[in-house]
């Protein structure tokens, strides 16, 4: 089923990438450059968001241009829960009284649940269409949530919402940058494991078959719609979780997390690394944050050069970084 | 609420819709003929606005600026088509999205580099700066009425171009079967460049016209681009008629929603709460309309064959 040589090469690259990302904060401590820990955490969180999108986009071929919606929803769940817990005012009192939480496990669960809750109606409408329609409709739904966040003043509106102290995790001092990084890295590892399990499951096989040939999938008696909807929801949950972590990293959430630039960036991460590759999002996030940091240090117009690089990758280096180093994709 | 105010808001909605049509017509034409999704269409809108503002500031003439905006946007469109877009026709939509997303980054940051971060201002030409008496007692700016007129003229012109001229015939042929029209000896590559430049010029015109109403700044094209997407999704991608109907619908629903919903909600929830809730719902209204239309007509109102 798999080409042994290319497989081992890709696995080697994956291991190297995982080790390098894990080593980065320790190098930062040795170099006494604590800012690099933040960079590494940023890489891990963006990679997590892109792993989520990769389930829909890479495996399912569903080009969602609206995943910022879930990233931002996760962020707002973290922000809103924390602000209620901090101010000790109940979020709602019926059917039971709930006054927010500053505990990450609660926030993560809520971020994933709310993302799924929003993803199901969006997916149910968007998945009735395909191709360009799907791209534009997911984009439009994300814009809807973006404008709602801007015009709803209760949680900061356009100005965003600050998280005064980073939310806690039982047994971990999250205020310590290294501990927080390790927490994010652990979540990323779990998400990658889940991606791998899905990729190699019957569900994943059906999902990928739907991308390659929808008629054939229908001909063997599997309806693509439900499989895609489930994949879209799982994908949204992981991206939402990443959003909650991102808000905690910056201790700030604003409508910019919901903006369509964010959706575009998430797709860029996947393409830079390599579509439908297990570690594609990790490679992409590492590259992206490095570009941002290196180019940003040279010129304030770094986005101009990011655009040029991206254009070059799309036109000339299909398959992304992992494709470049590890050879062609296995199949599909 | 007076009738005059309502008429004014309806006209505002029409003006907004007509401006969206100028954007959406190009987008839908480019998708219909070349099968290309172009995110950088908003950048062409921005280029039109900047060209108009810069030339108007240098020469003192809005009209020269308007000509410059058409020329600059069409030239930028043709250049982009020749250098980048041409390589994307055979690619899947994902590559097209990414490459044109990259173009947005390049155009936006490039414009910021050239003109700085501060917005430019464009004055309404003196010949159009007055107001017109409306039936019902209100007054309405002549310039906005002119935009509505220009939009209707463009819609009629596009209709005639596509249904009556040789170029239009080729465009329609390219929509239905591109191999066949190439086999018949039509230079399809040049046709594509012409269509792209035409769409770009319309976007540039929209940018220049709106530039005199708002400030001219980097990123001004992006909200309009996304609304234009909503328009062509509602209207049916590839259909000019759909773009026109969708644009007017979106323009009216958005403007009237922002005007009426806060008042409506205030009647139920009290003025302060009602106004914020109404404003929040109004900002989402066109997307709700889009979702409803797609739930019943997944290919839009006037689905084209493409």
From TrEMBL, chain B:
Q: What is this protein called?
A: Branched-chain amino acid ABC transporter permease
Please give the coiled-coil regions recorded for this protein: none
Q: Name one GO cellular component term.
A: plasma membrane
Q: From what superkingdom does this record's organism come?
A: Bacteria
Q: Where in the cell is it found?
A: Cell membrane
The keyword Transmembrane helix is assigned to this record: yes
Molecular function GO labels: transmembrane transporter activity
**Species in which this protein is naturally found:** Mesorhizobium zhangyense
**One Pfam assignment:** BPD_transp_2
Query: Lipid biosynthesis as a keyword?
Result: no
Q: How does it sit in the membrane?
A: Multi-pass membrane protein
């Amino acid at each position: 089923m798999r080409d042994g040589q290319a497989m081992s090469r890709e696995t080697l690259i994956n291991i190297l990438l995982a080790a390098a990302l894990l080593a980065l904060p320790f190098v930062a401590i040795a170099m006494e450059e604590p800012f690099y820990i933040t960079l590494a955490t940023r890489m891990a969180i963006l990679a997590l968001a892109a792993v989520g999108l990769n389930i829909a986009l890479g495996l399912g071929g569903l080009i969602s241009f609206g995943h910022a919606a879930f990233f931002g929803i996760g962020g707002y769940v973290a922000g809103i829960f924390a602000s209620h817990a901090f101010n000790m005012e109940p979020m709602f009192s019926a059917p039971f009284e709930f006054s927010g939480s500053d505990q990450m496990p609660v926030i993560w669960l809520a971020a994933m649940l709310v993302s799924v809750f929003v993803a199901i109606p969006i997916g149910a409408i968007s998945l009735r269409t395909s191709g360009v329609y799907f791209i534009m409709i997911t984009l439009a739904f994300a814009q809807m949530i973006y404008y709602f966040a801007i015009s709803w003043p209760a949680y900061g509106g356009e100005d965003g919402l600050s998280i005064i102290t980073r939310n806690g995790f039982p047994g971990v001092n999250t205020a310590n940058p290294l501990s927080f990084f390790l927490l994010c890295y652990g979540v990323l590892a779990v998400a990658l494991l889940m991606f791998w399990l899905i990729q190699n499951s019957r569900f994943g096989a059906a999902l990928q078959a739907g991308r390659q040939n929808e008629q054939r999938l229908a001909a063997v008696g599997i309806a693509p719609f439900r499989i895609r909807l489930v994949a879209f929801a799982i994908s949204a949950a992981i991206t939402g979780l990443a959003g909650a972590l991102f808000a905690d990293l910056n201790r700030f959430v604003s409508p910019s997390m919901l903006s369509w630039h964010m959706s575009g960036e998430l797709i860029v991460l996947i393409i830079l690394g390599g579509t439908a590759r297990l570690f594609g999002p990790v490679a992409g996030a590492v590259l992206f944050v490095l570009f941002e940091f290196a180019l940003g240090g040279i010129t304030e117009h770094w986005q101009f050069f990011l655009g040029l690089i991206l254009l070059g990758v799309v036109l000339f280096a299909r398959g992304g970084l992992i494709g470049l180093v590890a050879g062609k994709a296995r199949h599909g | 609420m007076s009738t005059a105010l309502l008429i004014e808001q309806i006209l505002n909605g029409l003006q907004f819709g007509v401006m969206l049509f100028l954007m959406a017509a190009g987008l839908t034409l480019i998708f219909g003929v070349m099968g290309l999704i172009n995110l950088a269409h908003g950048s062409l809108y921005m280029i039109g606005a900047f060209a108009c503002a810069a030339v108007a500031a240098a020469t003192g003439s809005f009209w020269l600026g308007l000509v410059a905006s058409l020329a600059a946007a069409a030239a930028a469109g043709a250049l982009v088509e020749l250098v980048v877009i041409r390589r994307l026709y055979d690619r899947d939509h994902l590559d097209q999205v990414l490459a044109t997303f990259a173009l947005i980054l390049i155009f936006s940051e490039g414009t910021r580099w050239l003109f700085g971060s501060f917005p430019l201002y464009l004055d309404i030409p003196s010949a159009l700066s007055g107001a017109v008496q409306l039936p019902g007692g209100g007054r309405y700016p002549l310039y906005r009425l002119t935009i509505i007129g220009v939009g209707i003229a463009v819609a009629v012109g596009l209709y005639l171009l596509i249904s009556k001229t040789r170029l239009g015939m080729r465009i329609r042929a390219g929509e239905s079967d591109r191999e066949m029209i190439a086999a018949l000896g039509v230079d399809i590559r040049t046709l594509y460049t012409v269509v792209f430049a035409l769409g770009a010029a319309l976007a540039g015109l929209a940018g220049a016209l709106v530039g005199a109403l708002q400030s001219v700044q980097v990123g001004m094209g992006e909200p309009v681009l996304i609304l234009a997407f909503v328009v062509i999704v509602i209207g049916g991608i590839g259909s000019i008629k759909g773009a026109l109907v969708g644009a007017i619908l979106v323009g009216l629903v958005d403007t009237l929603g922002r005007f009426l919903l806060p008042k409506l909600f205030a009647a139920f929830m009290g003025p302060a709460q009602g106004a914020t809730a109404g404003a929040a719902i109004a900002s989402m209204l066109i997307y709700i309309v889009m979702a409803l239309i797609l739930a019943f007509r997944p290919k839009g109102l006037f689905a084209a064959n493409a």
